Amino acid sequence: MPLRIDVITIFPDYFAPLQLSLMGKAQQSGLVTIAIHDLREFTSDRHRSVDDTPYGGGAGMVMTPEPWGQAIDAVVTDQSTLIVPTPAGKLFSQPVAAELAHSTHLIFACGRYEGIDQRVVEYYRPRIDVRELSIGDYVLAGGDVATLAMIEASVRLVPGVLGNPESLVEESHQLPGVEYPSYTKPPTWRGLDVPEVLLSGHHDQIARWRAEQSTIRTTHNRPDLLPGS
Ligand SMILES: CN1CCCC[C@@H]1Cn1ccc2ccc(-c3n[nH]c(N)c3C#N)cc21
Q1: Which residues line ligand 1 (CB under 6 A)?
Q2: Is the predicted ipTM greater than 0.90, yes or no?
Q3: Which residues are annotated as a binding site for S-adenosyl-L-methionine?
Q4: Relative to the CA of 136, which ligand 1 atom is closest?
Q5: Which residues contact residue 6 at a Cβ distance below 8 angstroms, ignoring those fewer than 6 apart?
Q6: Which of 27, 42, 195, 201 is a Cys-bridge partner for 71, taking CB atoms 3.0 to 4.6 Å apart?
Q7: How do residues 33-54 score in pLDDT, each as one tens digit?
């Protein structure tokens, strides 16, 4: 059963990259099907409006609930998981990507403006799995880029999508630290040599060096990922 993904957005063109590279191949292989829906197709006024002023005042506009209700109703099943990207959401992570990769149907609601009327989440929460997710502690202009990131991180974990599943095994052993540095030919580049151990053929020494490098990098760049932190 392929993973089905429906993306609802006012900027369908944002998702053209999903036809390229690994994501494109995953669709061609039938492991994943991705459909992009223009929210404005689900409006009923001649201006195809999707936003209005916020109750309670405040700057900006809020996305009205009805177009979202019409759009989600058009694709939802009882197997659906509704993903709502928002800076207020739980943090998206590799374990969450792995969960989504094993879902049957994902619906991504890409908000813009100040966000989507909260009643959309409230309406679907009793009916299906609804997850408000954030990709990090910085503010984007909308949910589209976050959706692209979450789709790519999740779809690459769908069994059969990655040509070499070995890289996933390595990745899973990598956690909780960060990746060790990688090198390829030429052995010397602009006077800089590849670390000698990597040319030695001593796999135990290489594994030890890579583990050390991962710890050094994690300590310097991401001490929050160190065990016991
Ligand atoms: C700027 N503008 C007023 C402040 C509130 C957000 C709003 C913009 N905006 C509208 C819908 C929407 C969805 C996701 C995100 C988002 N930002 N950062 C993340 N990690 C995100 C995720 N995932 C931003 C969004």
Answers
A1: 85-87, 89, 111-112, 114-115, 134-136, 138-143, 146
A2: yes
A3: 111, 135-140
A4: 20
A5: 34, 35, 37, 75, 105, 106, 107, 108
A6: 42
A7: 999 999 999 999 999 999 999 9
